[in-house]
């Protein structure tokens, strides 16, 4: 099942990602963040999440990283045109969407292994 949640700030998204990583065993690469191109945070590059910018222009970074634009990501998720337009309006208003699905939870890797912890990324378990 695909989940798309609306947030007002990137800090709220980070809190939600941390919660899902701890409680539901998601990994950072399971998340797509959709927002305006000029609001892309610098932490998505090293965190492992994918930022899908909403912009009509193809940037130099998009070309080389093969970033999928927010609109294309939403259509590829199988959403109808009216729902895509609703989500794009939310983004145009300066808010963010966090998209993830539960298919990624069906990994072959043992969730209690050291390899799983490394892939999951650092947590707040200090």
Largest beta sheet: what is the strand line-up?
1-4-2-3
What is the helix/strand order? EHEHEHHHEH
Task: Output the structural class.
Answer: alpha+beta
Shape: globular
The pLDDT mean sits at 82
Distance between the termini: 32 Å
Uncertain regions spanning at least 5 consecutive residues: none
Radius of gyration: 15 Å
The amount of helix comes to 40-55%
Q: Tally the helices: what do you get?
A: 6
Main pleated sheet: 4 strands, mixed
Fraction in beta strands: 15-25%
Query: How many β-strand stretches?
Result: 4
Overview features:
single chain; 126 residues; 4-stranded mixed sheet; 6 helices
Kindly describe this structure.
The protein is an alpha+beta fold. It has six helices and four strands, in the order E-H-E-H-E-H-H-H-E-H. It has helices at residues 10-24, 43-47, 60-65, 70-76, 81-92, 114-120, and strands spanning 2-7, 32-36, 50-54, 96-101. A four-stranded mixed beta sheet has the order 1-4-2-3. Strand 2, helix 2 and strand 3 form a beta-alpha-beta unit. The radius of gyration is 15 Å and the shape is globular. The termini are far apart. The mean pLDDT is 82.
Quick recap:
This protein has helices spanning 10-24, 43-47, 60-65, 70-76, 81-92, 114-120; strands at 2-7, 32-36, 50-54, 96-101. The chain is α+β, with helices and mostly antiparallel strands and 126 residues long.
Map the helices and strands.
Elements (H helix, E strand, L loop, with lengths): L1 E6 L2 H15 L7 E5 L6 H5 L2 E5 L5 H6 L4 H7 L4 H12 L3 E6 L12 H7 L6
Helix pairs in contact: 4-5
């Amino acid at each position: 099942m695909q989940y798309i949640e609306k947030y007002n700030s990137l800090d709220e998204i980070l809190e939600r990602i941390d919660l899902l990583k701890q409680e539901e065993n998601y990994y950072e690469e399971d998340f797509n963040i959709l927002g305006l191109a000029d609001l892309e945070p610098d932490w998505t590059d090293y965190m492992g999440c994918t930022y899908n910018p909403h912009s009509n222009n193809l940037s130099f970074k998009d070309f080389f990283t093969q970033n999928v634009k927010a609109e294309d990501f939403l259509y590829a998720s199988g959403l109808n045109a009216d729902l895509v337009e609703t989500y794009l309006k939310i983004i145009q208003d300066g808010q963010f969407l966090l998209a993830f699905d539960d298919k990624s939870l069906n990994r072959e890797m043992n969730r209690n292994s050291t390899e799983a912890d490394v892939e999951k990324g650092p947590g707040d378990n200090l």
